[in-house]
Amino acid sequence: MACPRCGSLLDVQYEWDRLPAPRSLRDFEAKWARRQDPYCFSGVWRFYELLPFAPQEFCVTVGEGQTLLQPSDGVGEYIGLKSGRLFLQYEGLNPSGSFKDNGMAAAFTHARLIGARRAACASTGNTSASLALYCAATRLMRAIIFVGSGKIAYGKLSQALDYGALTIQIAGDFDDAMARVKEVSQQLGIYLVNSVNPFRLEGQKTIMYRVLEGLGWEVPDWVVVPGGNLGNSSAFGKAFEELYQLGLIRRKPRLAVINAVGANTLYILYEKQKVRWNDGQVARQTVADYYAQMDSEGRRASTIASAIEINRPVNLDKCLRALQWCQGLVREVTDEEILDAKAQVGAGGLGCEPASAASVAGAKKLVAEGIISPDERVVCVLTGHVLKDPTATVAYHTTDQKMFNEVLGRRGVRRPAFANRPVSVSNNLEEILKAIQLYG
Ligand code: F0G
After folding, report:
1. Residues in Cβ contact with 400 at an 8 Å cutoff, skipping those fewer than 6 apart
2. Which protein residue has the closest C-alpha to ligand 1 atom 11?
3. Quick one: pLDDT at residue 63?
4. Model-level pTM?
5. Is the pLDDT of residue 2 over 90?
């Protein structure tokens, strides 16, 4: 999926003037009336005209993208925004419980177009769950997934196993698995569905179309998204740039990409070392030197937000491009900030996994810095469902010190500010009634 000459990732480009490009974004809404048609039901293919890389009859769908832009004053207040200014784009509602299904529908469409029989990915858990689901549900391909041993949350691992994927646990982390899956898929001619695959990003553009739809086609001031392999941020930037070029929006939102402190490659490169897209002239030597330094110090990504525990984001260049297009910036947040933000999201009733809450923790930081004003309209993307990583959630709320220490304490998390501790009582009616009186 890379250019054989320069090694950069390929990008999907359309000749819009030769295509029936949409005249108005409101036309997409009309498709809601035809929801018995799977291409209108799918939250990806409803926007077919904005990702027309395959004939429509090839488009694969399992009903992805029925997701919600939810106003959330409770979480907004926590972030420091005025009432009515925060919206959470809840991608946990996808069939496999994360945003990955948007991209997988598009990658499967391309795979079907070229007649692939096997598909592989390296994953911190959600891409693999999504790939496994699409293989099982469509029976188009056999799934082979590579995961770092002990590096993937149980909810996600259980999905891959249940959906019947060939699951290869590598003694290493995501970056090791990524390097291997590239070698293996090249040697065996297996279709690679990591976000090095440009069609994945085409599908993920639709998350932003649904955000706009949820806002009555008004552009928010900010889109805040967690950054791991940087597929989402790259796709969002491309979505807005294309809509802008097509004259379908008049301005672009600002993009904020949020790293975990323990996996902060983009933050260091962009904010500290000032690496920029620079119209394609990325300072490669600076990036190479930073990676060499990480290696020589034996530094590996480490965060409770296992989904974004990544050292070398494969979409770095495209993300830098998106940051240029959308006047972006990057922040890092600690595991403690992530978990507190996650508990606030949960208390608001949606629930997300740790990596997703980085967007909320990042938005809070940007308000505190005075970069986001309390009056601005902010969208935080919640990338994955709360049930993906029950261990992190239970460890945060638990009274079991051993579990807390093993899961969170060793990562420097000291004080869960919003722990909702379970109350233990013996099986005795009076004690139960007393506990309810005391805490209820
Ligand atoms: N949030 C969740 C829940 C994720 O699973 C991921 C990535 C991200 C955020 C980061 O998104 O890579 O587009 O910057 N998960 C990948 C995986 C790496 O293998 O499931 P990104």
Report:
1. none
2. 228
3. 97
4. 0.97
5. no
